[in-house]
Amino acid sequence: GQQLNQSPQSMFIQEGEDVSMNCTSSSIFNTWLWYKQDPGEGPVLLIALYKAGELTSNGRLTAQFGITRKDSFLNISASIPSDVGIYFCAGYNNNDMRFGAGTRLTVKP
Amino acid sequence: KAGVTQTPRYLIKTRGQQVTLSCSPISGHRSVSWYQQTPGQGLQFLFEYFSETQRNKGNFPGRFSGRQFSNSRSEMNVSTLELGDSALYLCASSFAEFYEQYFGPGTRLTVT
User: Fold this and answer.
1) β-strand A44-49 against A55-58: which pairing, if any?
2) What pLDDT does A47 receive?
3) Could you tell me whether strands A44-49 and A19-24 are parallel, antiparallel, or unpaired per DSSP bridges?
4) Under an 8 A CB cutoff, do A42 and B4 touch?
């Protein structure tokens, strides 16, 4: 099935910088989720969004559910070295779950 | 609370063989989902079991099957392995809604 369009594919930033990544789809989703995956580990759920227009924060992370229900973005403020990893978006609708290809984040101290 | 555990962590099989992977969910979680992760296709949903019944299913061939036991532990079976089945297989558990899930570390399957 069609996966989500996630961008950028990779980012190299300096510690302290803010980061923004997004996910778009041609289909509507009722739930958007953001995960982080470290090497050798499974993804960890960071933020779940359930309503169009919803803006939710989890510490330095903020995510929004687009009003068209076809997109979502994730912001990380004041990045730190442990933010390194791969970030995935996921959309869920009618028993169907799709994932983005991931954004690989590298943070230089 | 112990997390999701998967066994084995690494596995090497030969084309044509079959394989069974195991997943133990977080205590109290009744939903177990399975995913395949590859560099080319990314994360893809295989299926979800809730209370021993398959509740959701992705778009994978019938060679991929699963089951869930009364204690919520789940197994995934892949028959007639193909080279393209080489992947990280992830299991995730949740209490109710399957997308509010916690992932295990995965089983790395290599098919030669």
Assistant:
1) unpaired
2) 95
3) unpaired
4) yes
| Residue pair B22/B69 in contact by the 8 Å Cβ criterion | no
Which candidate in A47, A99, A103 is best for mutational testing of the B interface (most B CBs within 10 A)? Answer: A99
Q: Which of B13, B1, B7 is nearest to B109 (CA)?
A: B13
Taking only the tens of pLDDT, chain B with its 112 residues reads: 679 999 999 999 999 999 999 999 999 999 999 999 998 888 999 999 999 999 988 889 999 999 999 999 999 999 999 999 999 999 999 987 777 889 999 999 999 9
Q: CA B86 → CA A7, A56, B97, distances in Å?
A: 26, 36, 29
Average pLDDT of the residues in A94-102: 87
Asked if the Cβ–Cβ distance from B55 to A42 is below 8 Å, we say: no
- Mutate: best of B99, B107, B108, partner A, most A CBs <10 A: B99
Q: A35 to chain B: which residues are within 8 Å by CB?
A: 103
> CA of B106: which chain A residue's CA is closest?
A42
Using a 10 angstrom Cβ sphere, with 0-12 exposed, 13-18 middle and 19 or more buried, the burial of residue A109 is: exposed
CA dihedral B54, B60, B65, B70 (to 10 degrees): -30
CA of A45 to nearest chain B CA: how many angstroms apart? 7
